[in-house]
Give the backbone structure.
Amino acid sequence: MMDFSNLLQPDRGQAARTITLLAPGDFEAWLAQQSAATRALATAQRFSAQPNTHLLIPHNDDISVMAGASDAASPWALARLAELLPEGVYRLDGVDVGANALGWLLGQYRFTRYRKGEDSGARVLLTRDVAHRDEMVRLAAATALVRDLVNTGAGDLGPAELEAEAATLARTHGAAMAVTAGETLARDYPMIHAVGQAAVRERGPRLIELHWGDPAHPRIAIVGKGVCFDTGGLDIKPSAGMRLMKKDMGGAAHALALAGLVMAARLPVRLHLVIPAVENAVSGAAFRPGDVLRTRKGLTVENTNTDAEGRLILGDALTRAVEEHPELILDFATLTGAARVALGPDLPPLFTDDEGLAADLLAAGVVEDDPMWRLPLWDGYDEMLKSDIADMVNAPDGGFAGAITAALFLRRFIPRNTAWVHLDVFAWRPSAKPGRPKGGDAYALRAAYRMLKARYADA
């Protein structure tokens, strides 16, 4: 993974090129004060201070930079600059870096596991706020972790490799780790076992857990869906639907990244990270449509669709999280195509019955430019989960309100007095934006972290 620490350095007065942020509405006044040579240069390059454009102005043996920015407070105001500027050291003119640091760092993110990118050198930004610098570097690294994991092909990232990522996280922060697999998994977590039982042995299903922090502190659980590849099972996906299913462990990637942020910041919590890791494969051992599955909670589920497997493994994982009596549970999952139909790729829905938790998360999303949209846990749709032979089905017929019914399925495993939020993230960016290349990406991660800091560190 990239080391972002060298791209954002403390400002000790060292030599640096100047970047001046200029709003489009201020362009004409600025231009009128410039030399004839600078005005000619701006005209030749058609620079008018529009967002994500810049003008390089020569000064003796070096340059300064004018950058268009409609909102200098946006995390992404400097992202395009970080992608395009020449190698060197830069300083913002008149303002400190603030939220701009994140875009500067992530604008230089590259996924190079399979193809080495062209080395254009490091663009270093100076900041006077050293404490904020450390936080921005951690946020960039967490985002890059999600991107790297989601971008990695499923042949190189199965349940065992996801376990290895969790082990690295545990070693880094001194967390205790436990893994349940094999016959114990089949007995104690029957839905996780059922979904993953068709995979070859080395890619067998498992439940990964990390425990960290003082047991006397408030307990929180972070749960992430870890379907490392999803064929759809016997209800097999068409090739177009299977193409991006390496990203179906995106929820686990988010959970690992958020847990890392919590531990690095040493928030005063007792953290429980829970990741059910499986491959939903096709073989003679695959679970079948019509099978009735038992759950860790004791409920029975009529399996009406083997491609609705994420909610099955999360049901057992959430049950495990509840057993530790947390005061808050957050789950991340690439759960439904219905969420994408409703809200598109950039806006993950959140589901919760806790009004305060919803308000805190949405407010954090606004501040962090990491938005979400609340969808209802509509009690009237709960009857869609009714089964004639079991306690419930996993996928109702008809496809109506698919994101909501999936969330309602998960709610069956959560006690009513436990604060819980479900985030149905896409974990993929279908087209590039400044600082956000096409491919794997983190959604609602920064917002969730800000909410946790406000609840625990700031309190």
